[in-house]
């Protein structure tokens, strides 16, 4: 192991912080708290794969949101590359939202 070994937990936290700066245009809550991010994988080469969904297949940002996520995650210095995969399995539902998001939207 070299001294340049990355701490994937620290990197994961950085990725989450970046994801929390990206908002769904229709809902004033960030995509992380909305539950749109299903999984974040970081390999030893500092390449990131993000499995995410959209609130609906007809989401107006279906084209731009994954690109925004990729670009913002790639902007983290330690990240070599980032790829976003969109899935609708399982479909997004309000159950995936954090308590914070539900509170923000007056659902609690």
UniProtKB/TrEMBL annotation:
It holds the Pfam family FeS_assembly_P. It comes from Winogradskyella aurantia. This is FeS assembly SUF system protein. Residues 13-86 form the MIP18 family-like domain. It comes from the Bacteria.
């Amino acid at each position: 192991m070299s001294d340049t070994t990355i701490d994937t937990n620290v990197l994961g936290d950085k990725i989450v912080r970046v994801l929390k700066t990206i908002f769904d245009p229709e809902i004033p809550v960030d995509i992380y708290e909305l539950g749109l991010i299903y999984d974040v994988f970081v390999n030893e080469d500092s390449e990131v794969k993000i499995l995410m969904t959209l609130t609906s297949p007809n989401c107006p940002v279906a084209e731009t949101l994954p690109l925004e996520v990729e670009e913002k995650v790639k902007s983290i210095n330690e990240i070599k590359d980032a790829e976003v995969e969109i899935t609708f399995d399982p479909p997004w539902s309000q159950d995936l939202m954090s308590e914070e998001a539900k509170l923000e939207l007056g659902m609690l």
